[in-house]
Amino acid sequence: MMNAHIPFSTADFALAMRQRQWAESARQFVRCRRVIDETHDVRTFVFSTASGHMFSFSAGQYLILHLTIDGATVTRSYSVSSPPTRPLDLQITVKRVKGGLVSNWLHDNLRPGHDIEIEGPVGRFNFDDLPCEKPLFLSGGSGITPVMSMLRALTDRASGHDIRFIHCARTADDIAFRAELEALAARFSNVNVSFICSQEGSVWQGPKGRIDGPMLLRLAPDLHQRTSYVCGPEPFMQTVRTCVAEIGIAPSQYHEESFGGAVGNSMPLRSAVAGVKRVRFARSGAEHLCAPEETLLDAARNCGLHIPTACQQGICGTCRTVKLSGEVAMDDLGGLSLEEKAAGYVLACCSRPQGTVCLDL
């Protein structure tokens, strides 16, 4: 007699998937499976787990790499460029930077079969926490990686979102994912893709020069109806902030992730984003403009800085850090003593800036 068919319910499937999922945010090793040349100085590194577990993350989040280079422990943050809709691998896309310790090490040393230790993915610059119906993805240089993850996730799902994607590069040869972006725009009628080249000669027939307000409005004439997701090096970010301030974009319609570390001057977005919250790091010179609900720990990771952490709930005190100035809202669950609080310590994992905060880091 044939065995009776036992239906596999949606709940059973969800449970099976959770059991196969990777331990999100834990530090662990992953294996490099493939290295892809995107441009002359940009490579994508594809990782998977030895166990075959699936990765679980939100489009736009980043990884923290824990590496040993020349005998020293080094940490750096890199956005995930692959989408969560493809959970069997995890990808980061890295531009080789002149004098860049980690980017050069990755390009020169990381090969298929090599294992590295990572933490994450983490970060609140992601489409799950910041959804909208009409996104504008605006990126400069290597800032394309988190918004590429968002676009890939939406198109993998055949989403009906009205999407505009604008990427700024030096030349046509510097445009990462160009062929894929053009193919997505050709395939999906709801996806519009534009490139701007700042240093291109007559061979480039698209928009030329550096982005400004009039160019932004030409490429996204309905900008006031859109929510912008912006990422790129700090000079690019400063230009975009000036543009949106002059155009008058509402703070709720602007989200950013900044690449590139230190900022020499104050950011010019005060009129565009009311109640701006930023974290400055005194010893490293880095600075991060925080998204809503970002913690001091998030800010440090976004700048590639390492703060030791364990519980991430304000209990253990591992992430205690000296606050030199500014105010924070801290959800301390016993991680600091009264003496430590009096000495200026805060818990990075559960402290959110209430303006400009300076840390001794």
Number of strands: 18
Helix amount, in percent? Answer: 10-25%
Low-confidence stretches: 1-10, 12-19, 260-274
Rg, Cα atoms, Å: 21 Å
Mean pLDDT: 85
Termini Cα gap: 71 Å
Query: Strand count, sense and closure of the main sheet?
Result: 6 strands, antiparallel
Give the strand line-up of the largest sheet.
4-3-6-1-2-5
Structural class based on helices, strands and sheet pairing: alpha/beta
Q: In one word, what is the shape?
A: globular
How many helical elements? Answer: 8
SSE order, one letter for each helix or strand: HEEEEEHEEHEHEHEHEEEHEEHEEE
Approximately what portion of the residues adopt beta-strand conformation? 25-35%
Any overview of this molecule?
21% of the residues lie in helices and 30% in strands. It is globular, with a radius of gyration of 21 Å. The protein has helices spanning 10-20, 101-109, 144-156, 178-187, 213-219, 234-247, 296-302, 338-342; strands at residues 28-39, 42-48, 62-69, 72-79, 90-95, 115-122, 135-140, 163-169, 191-197, 227-233, 254-259, 278-281, 287-289, 320-325, 328-330, 345-347, 351-353, 356-359. Helix 3 (144-156) links the parallel strand 7 and strand 8.
